[in-house]
């Protein structure tokens, strides 16, 4: 077996151009899969990260039928007694109409999402406050933070401007209140509250005539892997209430379902690309067989069996696969490292959430290695069909 491997290496390395071409084919196939994974999986994970950080937390608690009528303090205290929980905060949502006078002109906007937050708890459970690029976060009952797109649609609202907000309460009555803009929120990729207005939760409760009611609780964990465990514990602790508790994967399922399908399709395209590299190996191996006709004839003349010839060329496929998998994986890891360290984004949009998925990395390397061996089977079989006399005659 050892002499066959030495022969395979000698025959392969004597044709350095063919070897480099075959290794490049495998390397490019692996690199394409790594690049696709970094970009598309990184974008998917970034969206999940921002939904978790800005809107849903690691666990989102809502009521099955209506608003939650238990006190904020009791729910928050219950969660924060659990060691895995970092913080919990209440939120209330509605839709508003807004208008403001800018340069003597009245500008009106309708159907703007408005979120009521607890300023003291929200900064611990979410990172929305970090997206305030101008001014400060909500700090009083008459202050409002406008998303950058809302501020733009209102004619370029700025910190210190006065905005009139209309909300329809639970009885269908219009409630109007004037707010002072305390900040403008702008998040990378617009995944935050760029299209939303943020006010104090008690102010929104007054306007909606829902004193004491809460729309949802956003729960942030210091160990997100414990989300399912904490969620189940919460539901068991309140069996007589109509609570719905969802992990980030469950609460954002509708938003992420289409994206998952897209990632699966991109991965499939990547593996088709890897199969194309296998065809390149077949072509190169066939060229090696044709170029080694004399050597094959000599080996057969001195007693080498067809099995020996088959094994020699399969060894060549294994060598190509091993080198290509190694170089391709190294190139892919290099690209991943670069994307992670530079916090890669496109056109200053959403920064990718880049991770090293070792299971995926090993799977890709093994797949390319196996495909290289499979691709060498037909050329190896062709080599065994050469008869010694016929092989020598072609020289």
Task: Give a quick rundown of the structure.
The chain is built from 13 helices and 10 strands. By secondary structure, it is α+β, with helices and mostly antiparallel strands.
Which features does this protein show?
54% helix, 10 strands, 395 residues, alpha+beta, transmembrane, six-stranded mixed barrel, single chain, transmembrane helix, MacB_PCD
Would you mind describing this structure in some detail?
The longest helix is centred in the N-terminal third of the chain and has 41 residues, at 16-56. Helix 1 (2-13) crosses helix 11, helix 2 runs antiparallel to helix 12 (358-384) and helix 11 runs antiparallel to helix 12. A hairpin with a 2-residue loop joins strand 2 (85-102) and strand 3. The protein folds into 2 domains: 1-51 and 255-392, no CATH class; 65-241, no CATH class. It has helices spanning 2-13, 16-56, 72-80, 119-125, 148-153, 201-208, 227-237, 248-251, 253-291, 293-301, 306-341, 358-384, 388-393, and strands at residues 59-63, 85-102, 105-117, 132-135, 143-147, 162-168, 174-185, 197-200, 216-221, 243-247. The protein has a 6-stranded mixed beta barrel with strand order 2-3-8-5-7-6. 54% of the residues lie in helices and 20% in strands. It is built from 13 helices and 10 strands.
